[in-house]
Design a protein that fits this description.
The protein is about 20% helix and about 35% strand. It has helices at about 1-15, 90-100, 155, 190-200, and strands at about 25, 35, 45-50, 60-65, 75, 80, 110-115, 115-120, 125-130, 145-150, 160-170, 175-185, 190. Strand 8 (about 115-120) and strand 9 form a beta hairpin.
Length: about 200
């Protein structure tokens, strides 16, 4: 267990040293990514990659409730928009995880932050990686989350489970390239920005 936690710490530390050499693709929580103009304004958001130290270490994922305005019925990491005055991105990610799945922030040890992902819906999302040592009870927020499920960390870290494909769409006279990420296997399809966030961890 400690070896796996050490691997995660090393991966996150390596990610924090990464300096982008070119404009990044913008991933969409709706399942795609495209090249945006750099001057496009983005709202800040954060998600929590909560790794539970179970007999089979696992990552907490949710299925969005059908009544939410965006990405209803899709798999997501707990997260949301930054609130004024809070420490970003750690406090944002921990607060949102507490609201959405009932994870007590005091139970989570933050290991670091992965490179941000820019979404089609106008957000720059910062993934916060945390380790949870003790058993915890998770409760879905009834208006935001229809289901909580755990995905084995070993599968998250297995690069062979990931795939991408690209599509081109014409918008306002310009052709944009969309890169779709997918994490294979399981009952629920894990794709788009959620899969890309997890792939950033696996790639390291």
């Amino acid at each position: 267990m400690s070896d796996l936690k050490s691997r995660l710490v090393s991966a996150v530390q390596l990610a924090s040293l990464q300096a982008p050499s070119a404009p990044a693709d913008a991933s969409g929580l709706s399942g795609g990514s495209f090249i945006r103009d750099q001057e496009t304004q983005k709202q800040q958001a954060a998600v929590l990659v909560a790794c539970l130290a179970r007999p089979e270490p696992s990552v907490v994922l949710t299925v969005r409730a059908n009544g939410v305005p965006q990405h209803a019925g899709q798999v997501a990491l707990p997260g949301g928009r930054r609130h004024p005055g809070e420490s970003f991105p750690e406090a944002t990610a921990l607060r949102e995880a507490h609201e959405e799945v009932g994870l007590d922030p005091s139970e989570a040890t933050v290991l670091g932050v992965l490179p941000p992902v820019s979404t089609l819906t106008g957000y720059t999302v910062s993934p916060v990686v945390a380790w949870v040592d003790r058993p915890v009870g998770l409760i879905a927020h009834e208006r935001e989350v229809s289901q909580i499920f755990l995905w084995p960390l070993a599968e998250v870290l297995n690069l062979d489970r990931y795939s991408t494909h690209q599509v081109r769409l014409s918008q306002s006279g310009r052709v944009h390239r969309y890169q779709i990420w997918r994490l294979q296997g399981g009952q629920w399809p894990i794709w788009g920005a959620t899969a890309e966030v997890l792939s950033k961890l696996a790639q390291r």
